[in-house]
Design goal:
By secondary structure, the protein is of the alpha+beta class. It contains eight helices and 13 strands. A seven-stranded mixed beta sheet has the order 1-2-11-8-13-6-5. The structure holds fe (ii) ion (FE2).
Length: 307
């Protein structure tokens, strides 16, 4: 890690606001609708995961699970043992992440109630076509150790919002708003990924514009949740043994881009035009119906508010 560039970045970075999950209206209007990231200190306070999800719990019950990362096959038990041993050189590979629906379906109950970032839950709405999520992982589990860095500067697939909750340990987030996309060096092959190989110490000759980028930066502590809106570029660093949960969000603000991105994938995949027109019509009609439902709920909340 280049300490000089780290110090430079710290001086240029902006903090991330904080908002309680119980300040519902402020959360929706100041952060979700305004498309700003926010740290929510209490979104997971009732989650059983906070008590149950420890390194020994995963080593005992899921230690046999394996993942090949950077060409080496790791069992979860091995990874956790190294994670608890302390710093190692090179640092543990990251992200060491699993699709919970595939590997830990019984643990999804431990991350309830899920934080809601809209007045309705579009992901589980009766009008939602689940095939549009295209294999996205709605529930993801991350492990990491001292010095693990997810260097791939990117924004999330299908323009979904993201939320991460630290169950164990701290994780540092660097977030760049969509307006800074011209400074992010998007890849020609996949414009959601940057070609900058190490955003913590970028090569100034190859990526001079990145020096003008100004991230929001925060250290997410155990028990805290961060919400980051669709289209925000991000990368993360871990500073010790870490277990984190990741979820996705779909609201009125990312619905149009979510549908558009699905259409782009279908164009690239050669889906017939008639099917694309049907998807486009679905996006407009279902989006309008959900928007109306949210407006009615908002009206009801406004009328119910004490004067
Ligand atoms: Fe991401």
């Amino acid at each position: 890690m280049d300490l000089s560039s780290d110090a430079q970045m710290a001086s240029a970075a902006l903090p991330v606001d904080r908002c309680s999950i119980h300040e519902r209206r402020r959360l929706l209007e100041n952060y979700v609708l305004a498309a700003r990231p926010v740290v929510i200190p209490d979104a997971a306070e009732a989650w059983p995961a906070r008590r149950r999800w420890t390194p020994p719990f995963f080593a005992r019950h899921y230690g046999e699970l394996t993942m090949t990362i950077a060409g080496r096959r790791w069992s979860l038990a091995e990874y956790i043992a190294q994670m608890q041993r302390g710093p190692c050189d090179p640092p543990l590979p990251y992200p060491f992440n699993f699709d919970m629906q595939q590997h830990f379906p019984e643990l999804i109950a431990d991350v309830q109630p899920q934080p809601r970032f809209g007045r309705i839950d579009r992901l589980n709405h009766p009008l939602m076509w689940h095939s549009l999520l295209r294999g996205t992982r709605p529930h993801e589990l991350f492990f990491g150790g001292h010095g693990s860095v997810f260097r791939q500067l990117h924004y999330d697939t299908l323009f979904l919002h993201g939320h991460i909750t630290q169950i164990l340990g701290d994780k540092e987030f660097f977030l760049y708003p969509p307006e800074q996309t011209p400074l992010m060096y998007p890849s020609a092959a996949n414009p959601k990924l940057s070609v900058i190989d190490d955003p913590a110490a970028p090569d100034p000759q190859r990526f001079p514009l990145f020096a003008q980028a100004r991230p929001c930066r925060t250290m997410l502590k155990a028990g805290e949740t961060i919400f980051f809106p669709a289209g925000w570029w991000h990368y993360t660093r871990v500073h010790g043994p870490c277990i984190a949960y990741g979820g996705i969000g779909l609201t009125s603000t990312n619905w149009p881009d979510f549908i558009r991105d699905n259409l782009h994938h279908r164009i690239a995949g050669g889906t017939p035009r008639a099917k694309r027109i049907a998807l486009s019509a679905y996006g407009a009609i279902a989006g309008a119906a959900m928007n109306l439902q949210e407006s009615l709920l908002r009206l009801r909340e406004t009328n119910a508010a004490p004067t």
